[in-house]
Amino acid sequence: MAYRVVWSRRASHDLEAIADSIAADSPAYAGIVVKKAVNQVRMLSKFPRSGRQVPEFDNANIRELLVYSYRVLYRLEGDQIVITAVIHGKQLLE
Fold first, then answer.
1. What CATH number should be reported for the domain holding residue 82?
2. Which stretches of the chain drop beneath a pLDDT of 50?
3. 8 A C-beta contact, residue 72 and residue 44
4. Domain limits at 37?
5. Measured between alpha carbons, how far is residue 7 from residues 1, 25, 87 in Å?
6. For the chain, what is the domain count?
């Protein structure tokens, strides 16, 4: 069963802001980070539980992928995966 992957507005803005920040020093590296994040998210449609459970939450449906020093947070909702945020690995979650 293939899951539908949906990016939230916040997650899209997060990834764009990260790319802009990295591009100030290295446009090439910014492209690499974005490409890897997008490719890993695409794989979720076939392997939705491939990311680890987010340690800050006691919920098996809230998961994350680690991409370089960033965390791509997502939530499983039935047959859909919602990418909720992309944050730096040192950023605290509330």
1. 3.30.2310.20
2. none
3. no
4. 9-88
5. 19, 26, 14
6. 1
